[in-house]
Write a structure and sequence with these properties.
Length: 138
Amino acid sequence: MQPTQLFRGVVGSHYGLDVTAQSAQLFAAKLAPSWKMVMAAKRKRIPWEVFRQQYEQLLDMNWQLYHREILETLDHASLEYSVDLAPQLHLLCYCQEGKDRCHAELLIDWLCENAPHAFVRGGSAATFPDLSLLEGGL
């Protein structure tokens, strides 16, 4: 089985898994930074490097406690198209495309480092098929 390709996407613009502090559900919330961390970074009360360190510590702790549940959540959210294509998954946040400092980008790096058998970083844009073709029904 091929590792899942991870991409960052914007909530409301992509299909994927919401990993934001305010709206992530169930075990996806274990992949989100705390709201306190987000607001401290957004209001520049802490530098980006401190945010990154705190977020990675939170991910490490949650991974130790919930790694099976997190892997199942990510697996269920990934899209598989055929035997030839690797599963793909957008990790969704509210940052605009092209933003340098985004927790979803940190999360992708962290997952690829901590579970390299399961995840790889995808390219700049996912190769999802046009899902609008399915709107008329099968």
